[in-house]
Amino acid sequence: MSRETSRAIDTVQHCTTMDDVRAYIDALDDILVPLLVQRGGYMTQAARIKQDAAQVRDEGRIQAIVDRVRARAAAEGGPPDVIEAIYRSLMEAYIDYEHREFARLRAAAPGTAQKG
């Protein structure tokens, strides 16, 4: 199926009980959590690569991500405002994490943390 005919919203299963709803949500969480852990791994790499802590927050990149996920949400049949709110929260959490990683990497190996 092409992207135009297959949207995420169209794959939502009909549920008749809250147990059904919870089972589907748990199954999705089992997919989402490993992806979020993987995303965090890239934040650690960003913290290693960036030369200055001031580079951790990049407003232009934040807006580019927001624009991208809003468009993707709309294309998938979801609410762009909700997806934007989730992503803004996610990015803030990862920015905090990246700041911690930036400091940890430099404290752990002064003079070597910036190697690629």
Task: Supply the key terms.
single chain; 116 residues; mainly alpha; Chorismate Mutase Domain, subunit A; 3 helices; 67% helix
Topology:
Elements: H1 18-49, H2 59-75, H3 80-108
Q: How would you describe this structure to a colleague?
A:
The protein contains three helices and no strands. With 116 residues, it is mostly helical. The chain has a single domain (16-108), classed as Chorismate mutase (Chorismate Mutase Domain, subunit A), CATH 1.20.59.10. 5% of the residues are buried. The mean pLDDT is 92.
Domains, number: 1
Q: What's the CATH topology name?
A: Chorismate Mutase Domain, subunit A
The CATH fourth-level homologous superfamily:
Chorismate mutase
What is the C-level CATH assignment? Mainly Alpha
Explain briefly what this protein structure is:
This protein is mostly helical and 116 residues long.
